[in-house]
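pasting for ref
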Amino acid sequence: MKLAMVGLGRMGGNMAQRLLEGGHEVVVYDVAAEARDRLAKLGGTAVDALADVATALEPPRVVWLMLPAGEITDQALATLEAGLEPGDVAVDGGNSYYRSFVADAARLAGKGIAYVDAGTSGGVWGLTEGYCLMVGGTEEAVKTVEPAFLTLAPQGGYAHVGPPGAGHFVKMVHNGIEYGLMQAYAEGFELMRAAEEFHLDLHQIAGIWRYGSVVRSWLLDLTERALADDASLSTIRGWVDDTGEGRWTVNEAVERAVPAPVITAALYTRFMSREPDAYQAKLLAAMRNQFGGHALHAEEPVGQAGAGGPTGGEPHGAAQEHPPA
């Protein structure tokens, strides 16, 4: 089939390449000329302006947006919409909020344009391994795009999960679960790292857990890779971003009165990771000192992390710094 891919970043570029390798005709557009040129060299038809995408396709047109959720996707859709006609299909493969998508799909349906949401998982490995696709939309619209879905997904990795919005909803929950799984691995490995008396090789343990263990998973495979060169992760700052889906998942759980303590805790841990000198942690220490006389730990001088020695100057006696884990 012939379709357009708008957005040729880490995901969209590889998806366009996989489609080309699968025999599809792909019109490609990105604001970065080098991204367009790379796909053109692989057989794509590059256009220099977003407004030219629709004219490079024949009805019924299929235009796939692989852009950051929110304003960037909204602006691109508005530009593309001007060139689309009844019977055409737009696909949103980004992590858009499902409620906003449902409203946009209803508006476009009034113009005879179908809007399909393709929740996409696979990351930078999708080019070779394929992408899991959680698709929402009308039956007719999904069938129109299905040849592309089947090329992008590995066998068994694509499903039409429901009406417009269902794909983004399922992908949102998928990412919430991802938060919880990642947090569990992170806590477990930190606990093993703290057991200094055993001198555990964390990379070795991640490796053996990949075979036969009940906790084996692709995330564990990636953990093993991350630990291969430097199990101490000494060059990585412990700052963990969130891109919205975890927050939306927690909000949905609250609104629907569904208990989700693991996902919620994982989200809040990401927030805490960005506060190495968190005020709330300081206040907790101060309260423990007030009611129980528990020792306080002074700030370490810059460049002296893990040096050890007395902190001094606290009303209930000096405390020793914890040794580095």
